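Let us begin with a simple case.
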Amino acid sequence: MKGQEWYQAAEVAEEYEDKRFSGGGRLIDRREKRAVLDALAPLDGKRVLEVACGTGRFTVLCAQQGADITGMDISAAMLQEGRAKARSAGVADTLEFMRGDAARLPFPDDYFDAVFAMRFFHLADTPAKFLSEMARVSKDHVFFDTFKRYSTRVAYNWLLPMGSRLYSNAEVEDLLDSAGLTLRNAEHDFVLPYGFYRKLPSWLADPIRDADLAVGETPVGDAVASVSYWHAHV
């Protein structure tokens, strides 16, 4: 997986959310959380797995919505941040964090009602294998996001030391088919890439996001979006 050593560094985990979701980055955090809840809610009483849970942003959110959720990640440092977040939110006793490999999920078939992964597939070196494992352990929902190949993300990728894996819609549809999944819904968003918003103060990010959304609502909006949210079922 791309950036695996970088991702597991303690200093990266400690600064991860402040660098990505403060200032203009809060708009990304808000949109991602809405995407997860729109796909998986109602969560009360559902058994859920989050793959590559990182610092537990979504794990804690789902626990607060009543899910019986497990957050799994390869980074011990990220999991430590997630456990601290769960304690602060008062849900430490209602969720589980565990270290594990997304290519070999340590669960039986059909164990969860829903399985999801955010900010993961752009790092995946074997996306078909990861998605097949997610499908295997889910009875119903599988949800994930990708960065789009034909978008402003291409230019942003040139600035990154390790880059990101970018996907065309057709490639994701092929991955879904290979994993035995049927697409329920796909949403495409953010004409401007995430990295742009993270550099902006809140007062400037808000009007730019409004303009971004306006473009997204036009007939070309989906074609020029940089992020896709994929909701499938087994």
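The second case is a distinct protein. As before, the sequence precedes its structure tokens.
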Amino acid sequence: MGRDAEPISGGTRMNYVPGDLRDQLAHVGYDVVQSGLAVGSGGNLSAREPDADTCWVTAAGTWLDRLSRSGFVSVGVADGEPVPVPEPYGARFTRPTSELALHLAVYRARPDVNAVVHLHPQTVLLLDALGERIRLVTTDHAFYLRRVATVPFRPPGSIELAGLAAGAVADGTDCVVLSRHGICVTADSVELAHKRVRNLEEAARLTYAALVAGRSLTDLPDDFLDGLTTV
């Protein structure tokens, strides 16, 4: 039984979208648009089964809040080549997102990562443009995010950007700000990546609110941070 499942009479109740990874990613896409973390097609998502050599990634031009299984392309992690899907869901789109290099570079750098979420959340990017770092304000922020890295600007979709992101996550960091562009959030499941994205933007909003109020935020105690176990 998964960590987020609980037994009920005659079966199991899940509190997250079960089953196909594309359905889980479609749920993320709808939620982040409704929550104001993304606009239209402003971002891309991917996921793979543990230790799989292929991943599902959003197709070029898809709207994040209108995704269905047909809005994903199966791609080889090692070579980046589309993999034919023996079902009608694979027939509509054949060209993966222009940020494919970012997703593949992260998977190659982190074998433990099974989901990558790339978005352009407004508050995170506003703080980056102001030269302000995101503070981990609450214990939830610390638990889910741990630390937030920032990499310098490189053109979206470029190999250079993918390399910088991969280098930033190689030490176990799961939340990376791509300067003046967006975020790259990773996890071992779609659900956990979803939680991290929500917490990252919340931390950014609280940080910005403190700046507007003319107040400075202190970090959580080091002994608390050091005592956190891996999510």
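The longest strand covers residues 182-187. Residues 190-212 form the longest helix (23 residues).
Keep these points in mind for the review questions at the end of the chapter.
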